[in-house]
Amino acid sequence: MSDTQFDVNKYIRAQFFPQMWCPGCGHGTVMGALLRAIHDLGLENDDVSVVSGIGCSSRISGYLDFNTAHTMHGRALPTATGIKLANPNLKVIVPFGDGDSTAIGGNHFIHACRRNIDITAIVMNNRIYGMTGGQYSPMSGRGVKASTAPYGVPDESFDLVELAKGAGASFVARTTVYHAKEAQNTIKKAIEHKGFSVVEILSMCPTQFGRKNKAGEAPQMMEWYKDNTVPMGSKKLADNPDLIQRGVFVDDNERLEYCTAYQELVIDKVMKKG
How far apart are CA 241 and CA 61, in angstroms? Predict the structure, then answer.
């Protein structure tokens, strides 16, 4: 635990500010929660690697003064896997969007869950492709309007928590940008967990999602998270089962972590044969 006062300037590349996110975007709140979690853990900048793909959310890697990589669309997790295997002592964190993680990167996502490699994946779910024109994503949901679905999306959306659980992630959680302190504490738990951690953070996009779906500006979208999400097991679910649950759904410390399994394989079998 860090006992020093939080100083954001320690963690950012100030020359790249002001940042490029639209007014009201939730990604800045996620970045703030991430930095406060890192500060709480007392991690030094060189202890951390942040890897991202392509999208509004993926700009985070460029803004932060850690060991960072801005990779190809959908390929953040393979890059992060290589970094983690090369240096298992690093805390490797992958902040990316719902499209980057579950569409073009969906195959990598499920196999990272299956391997249980010690990486923290933060999925900023704004239910839209924000940077590239407002196309719908696998998280948009039926009826949502987007530039590629002007009359409404015909597809059901993924439930990211269930997807991560089913694929084998050993830490799975969900929170929102409205619950910023909760997000900070959840990210902290995820980083501390030894295994593949998935934190879904519901994050608003007023520019693309909000306008097309008449969801209002950022304050109204924040209110929606307040009114339509509840802690796990809330009694309110009995009256309204459509409420979205927040919390830690999986925290399994018994599964073997992938880097450990790989090292055991190399030392116990490969090197002994050599």
Answer: 37
Range 8-273 classified under CATH 3.40.50.970: yes
Domain layout of the chain by residue ranges: 8-273
pLDDT digits over 5-23, tens only? 999 999 999 999 999 999 9
Buried b (16+ CB within 10 A) or exposed e, 27-54: bebbbbbbbbbbbbbebeeeebbbbbbb
Q: 179-214: per-residue pLDDT in tens?
A: 999 999 999 999 999 999 999 999 999 999 999 999
Q: What is the C-alpha separation between 221 and 207, in angstroms, rounded?
A: 11
Centre a 10 Å sphere on the Cβ of residue 258 and count the other Cβ atoms it contains: 21
Q: What is the 3-state secondary structure (H, E, C) of 189-204?
A: HHHHCCCCEEEEEECC
For the chain, give percent helix, strand, coil, nearest 5.
40, 20, 40
263: how many CB neighbours lie within 10 A of its CB?
13
